[in-house]
Amino acid sequence: MSSRLDDRIRLLMQQVVDESPVPPVTPLGPSVHPTIRHRIPGWLVAVVAAAVVLVLVGGTAIWLGGGGSDMPVGTDPVPETTVPAAPSTTTGPVPTSAPPPTIPTLSSLGEWQQVGAEVMQPAVAMTGITPLGSGFVAVGFQPDENGRQDGAIFSSEDGITWTRTAEDDEALTTGSVLIFGFAEGGPGLVAVGYGCENEVERCTPYATVWTSVDGSEWARTPPDFDVFGEGSGMYDVVVSPHGIGAVGASEDWISDELVKVRPSVWISSDGFDWTRAWDGPETERDAAAYSQFDVQMQAVTVGSDGILVAVGSMLDDQDVAVAAVWTSSDGTSWDRVPHDPAIFGGDGETDMTMWDVVADSSGFVAVGGEQRAGVTHPALWTSPDGFSWTRIDLDPTTAEFAGSFGTVTVGGEGLVVAGPVMFEGFGPITVWTSANGVDWTRLAELDTGYSSAVITVDQAVLISGSMQSTSGVQAAVWAGPTTTTR
Amino acid sequence: MGVRTLPRGEVFEKYGVELTRFATSMVGPSDAQDVVSDALVRTMWSDSWLGVDNQRAYLYRAVTSQARMNHRTSSRRRDREAKTAQSAVVLSGETGVDVWEALDHLGVMERAVVFLAYWEDLNEVEAAERLGVSERTVRRHLGRARQKLGRLLI
Questions:
Q1: Cβ pair B84, A60 in contact under 8 A
Q2: CB-based contact B147 A424, cutoff 8 Å
Q3: Is the pTM of this model over 0.90?
């Protein structure tokens, strides 16, 4: 699905081997993996080679070593890296309260187009998009001169023309800033993710909240270990009758040992003051046996009756990643929906993850992916109340599509879905719509990249994500109609 | 199995280079040789060495195990190295991502399966046999590693 990613990983291994303290494979110079030799452009090899030289000239053997993972050899658990769990590819803000704005330019769109490319170029990923007032806000990140990520905020009145805002805002440029979910709430906007404020030493990220009145100026929650922990991350946020709720994952460390990775929830009444509301139950299993990607809340939404529903993944007793759903009636006490292998996976053959959830008139819809024989396929679940779930059998063509359903919203014929998600690597960004959740129509196949969020406005769809371009990788927003013909 | 047990003196000569490269993928160049040496000493002078059928796979597992122990004892030192290294951050021209920091995001086993899959071109069955784990474990670690690296390298 992602030969480009494969090439980059081979290039990475090439550097590992070249720096290995043993003779090169070939007597004439550094060993070159055959696949790299044939597929990687010469200029890219030169760039990386130059980078290696820079490291060696710098006189330091750099190895920012990480931690352990599933390790059947030996008995000691090892610490994982302090990088938090996988971020969600969803923004989650489902327009359940206020009606979406009416945008003439979007409503008259006849075909799909990338919008705002001229201002989004420096950013490498757009991680979310949401309506705000009568317009829209999109958020992403771009690398700074230290190789860390700065937040990148864009706004638009019509969904077509975009401008960069808050470009030099200290709250978005200090340390590392990775925003993965945001919603209209608190003082205006509440964004969640993870980052660090350390400019010099190693960045150990922790769950972080950013707030803004209108997107032009931002404030950042100060570090607070008791609330935000270390190695934690928030991946989605929802504004509900119970307050503002953020979901994600937390890591528990003792000395250098990663002891637990647990799903976590934070709540706030105003977006400024936060409380660690809930952590998933502790497990007796060796934390090194799983990675952060296996245990996390990815997305959260609120139903019309005030029930909060969060989705994500956990590991079952056989170390298989399975889809997981949690519910709460007050935001502070959460219960996981009892696991059923027929619904949430765990038959020993497939890994399953829920990436996003939305509330609709019938209850809730969750989307995700099921990995079979190394290939990920779309998956979809429905629930009338958040507590009882059904796995939907997709039409055969859609069921065999290579890629997840990554993000979902209400609109079009009923539902609009886009994929793949960031962590599958790049692929053809595909947009579907369905009236019943079973039979799906492909609305569009966009650029090669990934989608992070989808929203519908009138009869239009806006999708945020990232794409390959002639100049590299860039953040992107696409706009198009909710039907295949207009 | 019909596999000849090599005399101890020939083991390093036969497998030393590949094991060191493998170790480099997990612990970096500065510690790779120590990890391999420790693993070989610990393994070949154990009572069970002469009964090992697949010496190559056995050594890969030993190096993997040693790499994990090495990580625990040296993580604080690496933090200091990382601080020093800030002045020489390597940016790839295409994405602006530090490729070494990318590997920092992988666990030891994830690095191991990535190395075997992407450098040695082993399939899941072969990598599982080499590491003495199940195919499923290899598949899961490889999938997670690709997810993490996909975020950073693309």
A1: yes
A2: yes
A3: no
